[in-house]
Amino acid sequence: MATRDKIYFASDFHLGAHPRSATRERESRIVGWLDAIKTDAAELYLMGDIFDFWFEYATVVPKGYIRFLGKLAELADLGVRITLFKGNHDMWMFSYLKNELGAEIIDNERVIERGGKTFYLHHGDGLGPGDGTYKLLKKIFRSRFCQWLFARLHPNLGIGIAQRWSAHSRIASGGEEDFQGEDKEWLIVYAKSILEKQHYDYFIFGHRHLPLEIDLPKGSKYLNLGEWINYNTYAVFDGAQLMLRRWEP
Length: 249
Ligand SMILES: [Mn+2]
Known about the structure:
Elements: E1 6-10, H1 23-37, E2 41-46, H2 66-78, E3 81-85, H3 96-101, E4 104-106, E5 110-114, E6 117-122, H4 132-141, H5 144-152, H6 155-166, H7 170-173, H8 186-195, E7 202-205, E8 211-215, E9 221-225, E10 233-237, E11 242-246
Parallel strand pairs: 1-2, 2-3, 3-4, 6-7, 7-9
Antiparallel strand pairs: 1-10, 5-6, 8-9, 10-11
Helix pairs in contact: 1-2
This protein binds manganese (II) ion (MN).
Residues 12, 49, 87, 89, 171, 207, 209 line the site of manganese (II) ion (MN).
C-alpha cells in the first residue's frame, strides 16, 4: 500500500469544449490519470477551466462528465483533499461541488506551504500587464447581480449562449500556443513582480495552455500546467521537489 504523500496539480481540461464530440475521449484520459494517482495522492489541485462552461442554478447543473465527477468522488471518498480553482471558463462554481465532493473552491489565489516550500497558486486569468477587456469582463461575470440575472435565463438559453461563445475561444481551435519570451510572458512578469515583495518557492498557474518550467530570480520557479487537449501535463510535488510531467497511459 503506497503512502498518500503526493500533491498533484492540473488545469485546463476544458471538458465540454467545442467540438463536444472530443470530450468523452479527453474525459477518459483524465479519468485514467486520476485512477493512477488515487493511491498516492494526499491532495489534488484542479486549477481552473476544468469545465469549458459551468454554471450552477439553484436546482440544476450542466449535463455530462459523469465519469470524471464519479472518479473525483471516489478520490474524495478515499481521503484525497480536492481543491478546485475558478477559471475564466468555470468561475460559476458555487456550492454544488463543495457539497458533493467536500472540495474547497478558490476564487483567486491560494498560498500554501508544504514540505517547507511555499507555493503561490492561481488559475492565471486577469494577472499581469494588459488584457484590460478581460479584467473588466471578469468584474462583470463575477458580480452577484449579473450572476443572478444569468440564472433567471432558462438553462437551454443561458448555457446555449455560453457554448456558442466558447466555440470561438482559443482552446476550441485546438492549436498550440507559442512561448512569447520571458519579457512578454505576462505570468512570468506577474510572478517577478510578486517576488519583489514576497518570496515564494513555486508559482503554479494554468490558463496559458503551454507547459512551462522557468527559473525565476532568487531560486524561485514558475510552472505552467499546460492543458489536456494537446499535452496531458500535470505537476507533482513529492514533499521535496516539484516536477512537471506528462501523463502517458
Ligand atoms: Mn483555459
